[in-house]
Amino acid sequence: METWNPDGPDSKPPSPDGPGPGLWKPDGPDLVILGDNGAVLPDLPDATFRMIYLDPPFNTGKTQTRQSLKTARSESGRRIGFKGQSYETVKGIVTSYNDAFGDYWAFLEPRLEQAWRLLTADGTLYLHLDYRESHYAKVLLDHMFGRDCFLNEIIWAYDYGARSTRKWPTKHDTILVYVKNPKNYFFSDAEVEREPYMAPGLVTKEKAARGKLPTDVWWHTIVSPTGKEKTGYATQKPEAVVRRMVAASSQPGDWVLDFFAGSGTLGAVARQIGRRFVLVDSNAEAFAVMKRRLGRAIAGPRGESTSTVKFITVAGH
Q1: How confident is the model at residue 106, as a pLDDT?
Q2: What does the pLDDT read at residue 104?
Q3: Assigned domain for 18 exists
Q4: pLDDT of the residue at 92
Q5: What CATH number is given to the structural domain containing 132?
Q6: CA distance 254 to 274
Q7: Which helix (H) or strand (E) holds 110?
Q8: What pLDDT score was predicted for residue 62?
Q9: Which is nearest to 289 in space by CA: 40, 95, 24?
Q10: Is residue 198 part of a domain?
């Protein structure tokens, strides 16, 4: 694992000819970086990423934690499973991160400015938030990108977890979609997984068999606590939700970026459908999860072996 020091003697600001100390190269490996994105992003060159997905902390004022659980067969176990066999629950690693900011937008705004700089001329930003900050983000991004660059407000709706009895239960997130140039941006539904029609009898058999393009309301469950893609990381997002964005707003071979990478879902999806990726997170637990999840070569969409991921720790982490 390589260590990079942004303040070291070889560090220099990015230039039109390429990145400063060579942190990223267009023909280099996929990158997973442990470090403060405020320090890492300025070293990446302008107009590098066709699609950027950001899932920053939601500013809940809490420490987000999740403990992984698994079951193991045990004669003394209290859980009864298949064919009456006994199992016990084994608790795993607790992952957590701080989700409380005194001035949330002083933290997030300069990072969104970097996102605008790093997008290609036909690139798209997806900003994933919840009801606490999404309306403030809309005003800020209208000013930063331009109101005509607003493409969609996607509502990801799910139905799982605790329910309030004193208000309507909050069961959705908001994903704001902005393009860098409203007259020239990439969007294709060719790779987007289609959905069944709610009333298939009202369309032709051909349309019903093909399914419909998802609307701006996405019904999809959260990551199952017992599902195969579960990493145990708090607030992990489902691959199917992120895959829609990557598939629609990038092409095979394009570079995509997530600098609040968490469990690395963007990287997992990018490898599955032939995109290149850079992931950044300042949380050592997130970095460890991504090393487990992405640290091995896998077969690409056409059976070829994907490039090896390079894991980098920025000095100070």
Answers
A1: 84
A2: 76
A3: yes
A4: 44
A5: 3.40.50.150
A6: 8
A7: helix 104-118
A8: 43
A9: 95
A10: yes
Q: Are 246 and 51 in contact (CB under 8 A)?
A: yes
The total number of structural domains that make up the chain: 1
Residues in the chain: 317
State which residues form the domain around 310: 2-65+97-314
Q: What is the predicted pLDDT for the residue at 213?
A: 95
- Integer CA distances (angstroms), 206 to 200, 201, 212, 213, in order: 10, 11, 11, 14
Q: Is residue 88 part of a domain?
A: no
268 is a domain residue: yes
Q: Which helix (H) or strand (E) holds 4?
A: strand 2-4
Under 8 Å between Cβ of 272 and 293 = no
Burial of 267 (0-12, 13-18, 19+ CB in 10 A): buried
Q: What pLDDT, on a 0 to 100 scale, did the predictor assign at position 133?
A: 80
Contact 273, 252 (CB under 8 A): yes
* Average pLDDT per 10 consecutive residues for the chain, totaling 317 residues: 46 38 85 95 96 80 42 53 49 41 77 97 96 88 96 93 84 96 97 94 93 95 81 84 98 97 96 97 94 79 67 81
Q: How much is the pLDDT for 224?
A: 77
Q: CB pairs under 8 A, 24+ apart, for 278-283?
A: 278/24, 278/30, 278/31, 278/33, 278/44, 278/49, 279/31, 279/32, 279/33, 280/33, 280/35, 280/37, 280/40, 280/41, 281/33, 281/34, 281/37, 282/34, 282/35, 282/36, 282/37, 282/317, 283/97
Angle between helices 134-145 and 104-118 (to 10 degrees): 40
